[in-house]
UniProtKB/TrEMBL annotation:
<keyword id="KW-0288">FMN</keyword>
<feature type="domain" description="Nitroreductase">
    <location>
        <begin position="40"/>
        <end position="206"/>
    </location>
</feature>
<dbReference type="InterPro" id="IPR050627">
    <property type="entry name" value="Nitroreductase/BluB"/>
</dbReference>
<keyword id="KW-0560">Oxidoreductase</keyword>
<keyword id="KW-0285">Flavoprotein</keyword>
<dbReference type="InterPro" id="IPR029479">
    <property type="entry name" value="Nitroreductase"/>
</dbReference>
<dbReference type="InterPro" id="IPR000415">
    <property type="entry name" value="Nitroreductase-like"/>
</dbReference>
<dbReference type="Pfam" id="PF00881">
    <property type="entry name" value="Nitroreductase"/>
</dbReference>
<protein>
    <submittedName>
        <fullName>Nitroreductase family protein</fullName>
    </submittedName>
</protein>
């Protein structure tokens, strides 16, 4: 077979891409196996302090950064923190916001909705997990002192964060999407530039043993999909 070569479109190089192809049975089996694997993921709120190698965290971040993004701007920075002192400072600041949130910012309905998850303003996992990753979105880029907004920034960082969570699960580790609000204290503490905003805080590590999660069900396919055939 003739091997394909690069072509030019609008003066830009496009290279041949061959996507993997599976026969029908293998496709069905892979889709089923991946669903079951992803369905075994749970958000975990209690972490062991057992260390995780930096290289694993690097691979997880590289995976997240394969996400599609608006105009391929990749408008994200993943801050990975293992420094114990910094984690402690972040925990204290996050808990301060959370106390305010749980006592004054949340409606009764919101508090009731969270009751099955057993969350509260205490966030020991920020200090106890070996790593925390703060996913930051980059709202704009500077080019010669001019600000250029990035595109679909929330969609892009949301997709990348989903892929980060999948990569964490794939490594046999657990995480939690923590959203201390407001989060500007994080951008300051991490000394991030003015074009970056913290989006999610994710502790990464092993669950504390024994580990418990709420007895939740996921919505069945019929409730989360409509097919138009
Ligand atoms: N940000 C708080 C509160 C919280 C809100 C929702 I919606 C959750 O699903 C879980 C928690 C916290 O992280 O505790």
């Amino acid at each position: 077979m003739e091997s394909l070569t690069a072509i030019k479109i609008n003066g830009y190089t496009h290279v041949p891409y061959v996507s993997p192809r599976y026969d029908k049975d293998e496709m069905l089996e892979r889709s089923q196996a991946f669903y079951q694997w992803m369905d075994s993921r749970r958000s975990v709120r209690e972490f062991s302090s057992e260390p995780v190698t930096k290289e694993v965290i690097e691979n997880i971040i590289k995976t997240a950064s394969t996400a599609p993004s608006g105009a391929h701007k990749q408008p994200w920075t993943f801050c990975a923190i293992s420094n114990q002192e910094l984690k402690k400072k972040i925990r204290i600041a996050a808990e301060k916001e959370e106390v305010e949130t749980y006592t004054n910012r949340m409606s009764d309905r919101w508090r009731n909705d969270l009751a099955p998850l057993a969350t509260d303003a205490n966030k020991p996992f920020i200090e106890e997990a070996p790593w925390i990753i703060v996913a930051c979105k980059r709202v704009y880029e500077h080019e010669e002192a001019v600000k250029h907004n990035n595109y679909y920034v929330n969609e892009s960082i949301g997709i990348a964060s989903g892929m980060l969570i999948a990569a964490i699960h794939n490594a046999g580790l657990v995480t939690l999407t923590h959203t201390p609000s407001p989060m500007n204290f994080l951008t300051k503490m991490l000394d991030r530039p003015s074009n970056e905003r913290a989006f999610l805080l994710l502790p990464v590590g092993y669950p504390k043993q024994p580990s418990y999660v709420p007895d939740l069900e996921r919505k069945p396919l019929e409730e989360v999909s409509v097919f138009y055939e």
